[in-house]
Write a sequence for this structure.
């Protein structure tokens, strides 16, 4: 594929886009939408246009579907937790994005992380209100960004302690939260 100066391009194996500013043989220099200058081999890039980007983003999904998906679902009233039920196995919350939304296409990493953190905060508040003693957040291994953000969020609460969940059951991709009960 041949590129020309000012072509809009996207990087195939990364979430980067920009415009071509220089071509030296097989190496194409692009300026990303964040203003960084990066060099790529021609085989790593694909031409796009702003019209294509808009069409791809909204082609088979209506705006109302996107808004509906991002809204917090209204949950039915939950049953009262009886004292003898508090020692049941912990509540599990899977924070993997594919478990939280039907499709995360078009969401940036920032949007995904915000949705995951809002879900975690909602579940912490729910467990506190319902006097659930333990929650296990399944965050996976990855690069550790979600775990770090989760640790920061949990560190802001005085009414709980948290630690790595059972390794045999969850591996290293989960955090267990224990709530102190004020009887």
């Amino acid at each position: 594929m041949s590129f020309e100066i000012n072509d809009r391009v996207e990087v195939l194996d990364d979430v980067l886009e920009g415009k071509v500013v220089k071509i030296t043989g097989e190496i194409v220099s692009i300026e990303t939408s964040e203003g960084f200058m990066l060099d790529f081999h021609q085989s790593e890039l694909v031409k796009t246009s702003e019209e294509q980007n808009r069409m791809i983003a909204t082609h088979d999904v209506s705006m109302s579907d996107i808004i509906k998906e991002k809204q917090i679902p209204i949950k039915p009233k939950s049953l009262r937790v009886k004292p003898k039920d508090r020692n049941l196995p912990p509540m599990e919350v899977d924070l993997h994005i594919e478990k939280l939304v039907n499709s995360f296409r078009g969401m940036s990493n920032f949007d995904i992380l915000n949705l995951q953190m809002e879900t975690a905060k909602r579940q912490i508040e729910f467990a506190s209100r319902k006097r659930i003693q333990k929650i296990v957040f399944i965050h996976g291994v990855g690069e550790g960004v979600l775990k770090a953000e989760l640790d920061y969020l949990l560190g802001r609460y005085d009414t709980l302690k948290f630690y790595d969940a059972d390794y045999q059951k969850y591996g290293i991709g989960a955090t267990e939260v224990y709530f102190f009960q004020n009887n």
